[in-house]
């Protein structure tokens, strides 16, 4: 990729961010739009977690990822600190990968 293309893509990214910032500022005046706007980060994060956990995985790899995801979700549901949730999820995934063949 050339420097010119990189600069153009960076300018486009910042331009889209600026357009979104201005558009969402106008939507914040509407009660329903503001309510939806508050839910967007959680929905986007959930989609990212699911696609990264389930995408292109098969067999035991999928099982280990799901085990770690469930353990982390349970720890988060119990309102444990974030670092503990991460350690539990990673530890569960590592333990399942150690115990399962393949």
Radius of gyration using CA atoms only? 20 Å
Shape annotation: flat
- Indicate the structural class: mainly alpha
Ranges with pLDDT <50 over ≥5 residues?
Answer: none
Tell me the series of helices and strands, N- to C-terminal: HHHH
Report how far the terminal alpha carbons are from each other. Answer: 38 Å
The total of helices stands at 4
Helix content: over 70%
**Percent of residues in beta strands?**
under 5%
Give the beta-strand count.
0
Overall average pLDDT:
86
Description:
This protein has 102 residues and is mainly alpha-helical. Helix content is 83%, strand content 0%. The chain contains four helices and no strands. The protein has helices at residues 3-27, 31-54, 60-77, 82-99. Helix 3 runs antiparallel to helix 4 (82-99). The longest helix is centred in the first third of the chain and has 25 residues, at 3-27. The protein is flat. It starts with a helix and ends with a helix. The relative contact order is 0.07. The mean pLDDT is 86.
